[in-house]
């Protein structure tokens, strides 16, 4: 593990967290974000920060598998809201391409960029690529996430998790998100990258700025975001140069350097794949770690089941991933005209796959708005995607979550929500920015 920090990016000491920057912009100008006019335009972030998205998607699912949104700040698109429709689309990657991008953010034309006075800023990444390029780049990092590699990490993950849990205060309210969820996932990322340990919180800082789609709608924040991500690229480039002339090592940066599929990446592509690995490795696990606590507090009968029967933990992890759905959507682009569940989708139209809706699909999951850690088909959730783009780090995320619950159970630790709960204002990352808790024992 590298122990010495490198030259820290200037904005690390001056820039606020992404969520704080967005809040400040909205305080100064409540109209800073564009207005959403269509009833079923679920790209609006207020329904997620206020946790009132469930009935909107339920209404859409009852009306059909997909619905066209013509007027949206993110451009026209189809909302794909059912489990079967999302699986169908993900199973046809040639017909429904990922190469146009994965979030609801619209790729603007050169004319539109000129009109807005903005420069093109694109970060290619392998999740936003089609075969064969996607295959080669994914295979580069995949060995880090094989069952054998994951098994080798378990002892260290368990040690770090246990040590952190042993430091948590008793009879005192603290923020679970920052103290536990962020610390554990950021530490895991630092290990995967062999990232300088004193600077590990940079990974969270970058993840939040990279994963917040709302920021791109406010010109000043989008420019700031681009600067922060360029500084991220510069920092990682120091690590790249440091390791380029060394023998291959098992960290992700070294694996990229020594891969024919990735060692000729442009700076933008390098940055894009870093964003993918950081957001994928950070937000998914981090928000599920917080979602576990919130869901157990909301459904105390399920917490009691967990406390009485630790053999339920593996299935509980799948159910929490379904219930929380840490990344709300992914996007695809139709490469030709197609008939899709009674709708005609034209070539060039964008389809937003709402995993957050599919995981509450009543035709698949009985009583979907209820946490049930004994749910027999919990593993059918789509929180990791489906098909060739299924999350490459899914097994590692599951391991981290399992170890957390096992170590909590070993310590007979019961965590109560005891104060403020603040959710992320975003339509892509679905999670918590703050959760005040208190620990007791069972």
TrEMBL record:
PROSITE patterns listed in its UniProt record: CYTOCHROME_P450
Any Pfam family matching the protein: p450
UniProt entry keywords in alphabetical sequence: Heme, Iron, Metal-binding, Monooxygenase, Oxidoreductase
InterPro entries: Cyt_P450 (IPR001128), Cyt_P450_B (IPR002397), Cyt_P450_CS (IPR017972), Cyt_P450_sf (IPR036396)
Family note: Belongs to the cytochrome P450 family.
Protein name: Cytochrome P450
Organism annotation: Tsuneonella deserti
Upper lineage: Bacteria, Pseudomonadati, Pseudomonadota, Alphaproteobacteria, Sphingomonadales
């Amino acid at each position: 593990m590298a122990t010495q920090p490198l030259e820290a990016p200037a904005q690390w000491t001056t820039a606020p967290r992404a969520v704080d920057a967005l809040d400040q912009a909205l305080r100064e100008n409540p109209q800073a974000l564009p207005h959403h006019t269509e009833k079923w335009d679920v790209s609006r972030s207020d329904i997620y920060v206020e946790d009132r998205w469930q009935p909107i998607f339920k209404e859409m699912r009852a009306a059909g598998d997909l619905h066209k949104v013509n007027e949206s700040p993110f451009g026209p698109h189809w909302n794909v809201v059912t489990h079967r429709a999302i699986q169908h689309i993900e199973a046809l990657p040639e017909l429904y391409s990922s190469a146009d991008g994965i979030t609801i953010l619209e790729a603007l034309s050169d004319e539109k960029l000129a009109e807005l006075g903005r420069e093109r800023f694109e970060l290619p990444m392998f999740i936003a690529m089609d075969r064969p390029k996607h295959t080669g780049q994914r295979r580069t990092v995949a060995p880090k996430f094989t069952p054998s590699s994951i098994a080798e990490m378990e002892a260290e993950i368990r040690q770090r998790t246990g040590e952190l849990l042993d430091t948590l205060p008793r009879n005192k309210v603290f923020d679970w998100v920052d103290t536990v969820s962020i610390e554990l996932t950021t530490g895991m990322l630092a290990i995967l990258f062999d990232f300088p340990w004193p600077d590990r919180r940079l990974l969270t800082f970058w993840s939040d700025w990279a994963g917040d789609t709302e920021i791109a709608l406010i010109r000043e924040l989008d420019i700031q975001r681009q600067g922060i991500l360029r500084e991220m690229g510069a920092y990682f480039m120091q690590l790249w140069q440091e390791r380029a002339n060394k023998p291959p090592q098992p960290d992700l940066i070294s694996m990229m350097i020594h891969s024919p599929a990735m060692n000729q990446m442009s700076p933008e592509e390098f940055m894009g794949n870093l964003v993918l690995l950081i957001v994928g490795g950070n937000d998914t696990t981090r928000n599920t770690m917080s979602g576990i606590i919130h869901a157990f507090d909301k459904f105390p009968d399920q917490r009691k089941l967990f406390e009485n029967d630790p053999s339920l933990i593996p299935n509980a992890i799948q159910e929490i991933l379904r219930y929380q759905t840490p990344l709300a959507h992914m996007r695809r682009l139709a490469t030709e005209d197609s008939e899709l569940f009674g709708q005609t989708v034209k070539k060039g139209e964008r389809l937003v796959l709402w995993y957050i809706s599919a995981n509450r699909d009543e035709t698949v999951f009985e009583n979907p708005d209820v946490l049930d850690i004994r749910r027999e088909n919990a593993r059918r959730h789509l929180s990791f995607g489906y098909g060739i783009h299924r999350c490459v780090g899914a097994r590692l995320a599951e391991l981290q979550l399992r170890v957390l619950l096992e170590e909590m159970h070993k310590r007979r630790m019961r965590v109560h929500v005891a104060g403020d709960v603040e959710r992320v204002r975003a339509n892509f990352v679905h999670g918590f920015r703050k959760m005040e808790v208190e620990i007791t024992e069972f």
